[in-house]
Specification:
mainly alpha, 15 helices, 58% helix, elongated
């Protein structure tokens, strides 16, 4: 059902489907179906049955069977997750995290505050139990640490970024090129949550006014700047 509803969400510009958008989002992103009873399923069937025609025939599932042997047993290998499961899990995770930034562990990551073991356990329960399974997490995000994933979704608050770089932002000794370079770093980290690969500083927009060695005559200043960048990333460890 989730797969068909996911296809319907692509046609939200159709007024009749748009009218059921709240129901569609509940089915896609929450555990609505897991909690639903027989009456709920019947209500869903009635509300959405007339919209299946909008899904192109090529995207509908077709099952042809021609069994010649008896089936002795059926086993489901949970390690074999189809792509639709993973896409639904990713969407659910992103939607939930963006809607619940007041959760302590998430708020700390957005605020550049190191996590405690309790915070880490909270994230593990959220991402590996409430929203899905650890297997789904590993299949989609591989070796991405929990904190880094959450930080990449919510970013870093501008206030926290300014505080982290305050020693540089308030340094009257920085010239215009250095300040431009610094502000590009702040903008990037606010949007992406961290900067794991320092090599990105070699390209635009950071290098628009010159490379690192050109902008920073005193490399000690740059190394101190780099230390702050690495500290921000370290604070997302979980």
């Amino acid at each position: 059902m989730k797969k068909k509803v996911g296809e319907l969400s692509r046609y939200a510009t159709i007024p009749a489907i748009a009218a059921q958008q709240e129901l569609i989002e509940q089915i896609q992103h929450n555990d609505f179906l897991e909690r639903a009873g027989i009456k709920d399923y019947e209500s869903i069937r009635i509300k959405l049955r007339d919209f299946i025609k909008f899904i192109p025939y090529a995207e509908r599932s077709r099952y042809d069977t021609n069994f010649t042997d008896d089936i002795l047993s059926i086993e489901w290998n949970e390690s074999q997750l189809d792509n639709d499961d993973l896409v639904q899990y990713k969407n659910k995770v992103k939607h939930y995290i963006l809607q619940h930034q007041d959760i302590q562990a998430i708020a700390k990551l957005k605020g550049n505050i190191p996590l405690t073991p309790t915070d880490v356990s909270e994230l593990e329960n959220l991402l590996w139990t409430e929203l899905g399974t650890k297997e789904q997490y590993d299949a989609h995000y591989e070796n991405t640490p929990l904190g880094e994933l959450v930080r990449s979704i919510v970013g870093l608050s501008l206030q926290s970024a300014n505080e982290a770089f305050s020693a540089f932002l308030n340094n009257a000794g920085l010239d215009s090129r250095q300040m431009h370079f610094l502000k590009q770093i702040v903008n990037y980290i606010v949007k992406n949550g961290m900067m794991k690969d320092i090599a990105i500083l070699r390209g635009s927009p950071f290098s628009d006014l010159g490379g690192v060695s050109e902008v920073f005559d005193d490399m000690t200043v740059f190394m101190n700047l780099r230390a702050v960048i690495e500290k921000i990333t370290a604070n997302s460890a979980a």
